[in-house]
Amino acid sequence: MSSQILTCRQTLAVTSHRVLASDLNEHGTVYGGRLLEILDGTASISASRIGRASLVTASLDELNFVLPFKLDDSFCIETYVTGTGTRSIEVFAKIIGEHLNTGERYLGATAFLTFVVPDKGVTLGQITPVSEEEQYICAGYPKRRQARMLAYQQQKAFQAQLSLKHPWEN
Q: Using CA atoms, how far apart are residues 147 and 118, in angstroms rounded to an integer?
């Protein structure tokens, strides 16, 4: 595959969801796992738009809940690519809530996800930010990538210390 240059907007994926009673937890807000499922699916579309290859979710690097989503709300997930490495793709997500009875919109959550293209023969394109928001978020990509690489090395060392035996085994 040939490398290409895309704008963040060309990788934009948007999904909208009405909050239903089946989405709620015991606090009357959207269950985090439900939100993560939808978020991962939306973000994978953005990653696919620059990867154009089979890819896997490597990590949810940062998820910040700002305000909850409740019954009679909707939420809109907007994702776009904010950086690429050799085989990794960083995707930024913002989740915007709307109180459907009033039309008031609010920032509900933000996240960064990383996807990896397992095929080493794939060359990823590059991303170019255009809007002020995109420029601001993309400018932080090198620092976030460096922090991810360090965390990955630390996680590998941590995982090497974990036992895979049942607790009752010697």
A: 21
